[in-house]
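Query form — protein Amino acid/polyamine/organocation transporter, APC superfamily

QUESTION: What is the three-dimensional structure of this chain?
INPUT:
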Amino acid sequence: MERGKQGISPRPLIRTTDAVALVIGIIVGAGIFRTPSIVAANTGSSELFLLVWLLGGAISLVGALCYAELSTSFPNTGGDYHFLMRAFGNRFAFLFAWARLSIIQTGSIALLAYIVGDYVSQLYPIGLHSSALFAALVVVTLTVINILGVHFGTGTQNLLFAVEFLGTLCVVVVGLFIHPSPEHLSALPVASENSTSIGLALVFVLLTFGGWNEAGYISAELKAGSRKMVWVLVVSILVTTVLYLLVNWAFLRALGIERMATSEAVGIDLMQATLGEPGVYLIGILVVMATLTSINATIFTGARTNYALGRDFKVFAGLGKWNTKVSAPINALMVQGIIALVLIGLGAITRDGFQSMVDFTAPVFWFFFLATGISLFVLRKKEPGAARPFRVPLYPVTPIIFCGSCAYLLYSSLAYTGIGAFVGVAVLALGTLFFFAVR
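ANSWER: The structure tokens for Amino acid/polyamine/organocation transporter, APC superfamily are given below.
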């Protein structure tokens, strides 16, 4: 049992297979059933469409290798927070933790919960704000499960991941081996002309690959030791890339690039064209399960940053308490859940909850992602003598590619999103003022 600045610190209780399920579960969410049509509309050909998805996997693998060096060299429950603190100091690390608590992680939980709420409310409407109520119920339920302990959290994640993985493979089998109904296909609109914008297509592909960086938050809790983080990250990215290529190949074979480009729900169109109404019901369940998997993993890893914040700053000391009985940061989980519920409430008021949360979180997320990539260079200079069980290959080319990708997505998230992006930036600036007030 180890002690940190604020008392008991986490023990290594997470198995390697649990970590892989956690990371893949965060990556493979409902996005794979939403973004392919946008990518298709901006590529124009089947070959280019699949190539962009393969490129997205390659860029994600490059980023994962950078994170593997950081995670194995400086294993810590704080993940990115810890890397940024060592590289840039307390002020910048505080700002990142503030962003995770108020924008990035809680906003992600809220927008994912809205996906579930929007679908379930269509089946079982219970009032004016039924979508928000179902979203809130999801957040409360999964937060309680994680409060019950690390074994409950990872066990739930493994179950959700298994159902999600099998369901996604069913979509692949249906798309590749069941011929679509000509009647259903003829009813789908066909794109008369596709514009080619590889950059925009890649933005959505990389957003769909997002989430693998959460592995850094469990590096100190791996039973096999932090050196296994390389294996966890590489396997997670490779499995996800293969799965995404298979799913998109199934979409292409069943619908064709022209019908995909005009589809608003490519997964529903595929299942309706092959299995009819029962297929629509099945894809709806799959979307919900995929989203629940992502929410649970996001709640699990998000609380770890909040714990690190409380461990290092006295004003947030309540967040830095680790319950050894269940091996979980209970206070951090509760505060995170409350903020997510507040954001869900705001979404109910605007009634554009999902899009608002995307705009709110994206620029801040990519800014700190870029900063973490830069921290690899900084730490190589600041701490050259630190033990590095794994070094990113082809340094400095590999991290330069990763940082360039992050910089481009930061620009895109500011250029292509709405007012919500500037609200997120304003909340981040508020964190700077708060730091000077409490330090």
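ADDITIONAL NOTE: The longest strand covers residues 3-4.
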